[in-house]
Amino acid sequence: MNLLVQWVRKYWILISLFLVITITVLSFTPLLNALASCDKILHFTAYFVLVLPLILRKPRYWFVLLIIYALSSGVIELLQPYANHRTDVMDVLANISGLVCGSVVAFIINYFVTVD
Fold first, then answer.
1. Are 35 and 29 in contact (CB under 8 A)?
2. Every domain of the chain and the residues it spans
3. What is the pLDDT of residues 67-115, one digit of tens each?
4. How much is the pTM?
5. For residues 46 and 32, is the Cβ–Cβ distance under 8 A?
């Protein structure tokens, strides 16, 4: 566990960029319309995973990035009608819930895992 946390803390920017790009692309992919039954679970999971590297590394400006993640989820949701998706406030709530829960889990991991 320590090695994984250490690796995530070292490469958190690359991991975060990869996740942001992946989530953004998938948010506009029409293939995901078929997964509408578990839509909120996918939103929650994506943003849960997105916030983990940020909070595990916890740079000085972590809270600003957390707010940017939340705002970008809203912007993506507002732009989705242009990609044959519908705007859903519940998707944004699922995203923010994922950010909050992921942050809590990362804070707990940081508390118990110390890496030199």
1. no
2. 2-28+36-112
3. 999 999 999 999 988 887 788 899 999 999 999 999 999 999 999 987 6
4. 0.90
5. no
